[in-house]
Amino acid sequence: MSTQKLELSPMAIIAAYIIGLGKMTDPDDQTTWPLYQSHIPDGDDVETECGGVYDTVGINDPRSMNGTVSGHPGVQLRIRARDYETGRTKIEDIAVALDAVVRDTVAIGPSTYRLQNVSRTTPIVSLGVEPGTKRRNIFTVNYLLTVKKLS
Fold first, then answer.
1. What pLDDT digit, counting tens, does each position of 22-39 carry?
2. pLDDT tens digits along 133-148
3. Exposed, middle or buried, 86 (CB in 10 Å: 0-12/13-18/19+)?
4. Residues ≥6 apart with Cβ < 8 Å to 148
5. CA 45, CA 144: separation in Å to the nearest integer?
6. Under CATH, which architecture does the 10-149 domain have?
7. Of 135, 136, 144, 27, nearest to 77 (Cα)?
8. Domain chopping of the chain, boundaries
9. Which of 83, 127, 141, 145 has the greatest number of beta carbons closer than 10 A?
10. Which of 77, 90, 83 is nearest to 135 (CA)?
């Protein structure tokens, strides 16, 4: 049995796609709405309004007759905002863009990936307000990817 090796994590691929759409920014650019991978940092030098992409549980399709197993990796998008409406609007905007993916390509360094489909597996969920003094709103939504490395 085998599955295609992507070389990069699914969260890195979807983060590059979201940044490429202009919906979020690269944290290295130090601009508004940075999108981090596998964490959302906190501190005086970190934007309050930002996001994170995380690898989550995916699913495998049944094994084909030739023994190949195809998988659909899972990712979670998490948005943090200073108020409910701003956070909800931001995650809805990104969710609508991801719902529309049909065979789009993503170039990351020397590699190119094809996003065949990005399937939402949960509705947008408000996790409420963070504990502590900053009281920021957190939202999440989960996806399964159909992705393939082209080069």
1. 999 999 998 899 999 999
2. 788 999 999 999 999 9
3. middle
4. 4, 113, 114, 116
5. 33
6. 2-Layer Sandwich (3.30)
7. 144
8. 10-149
9. 145
10. 83
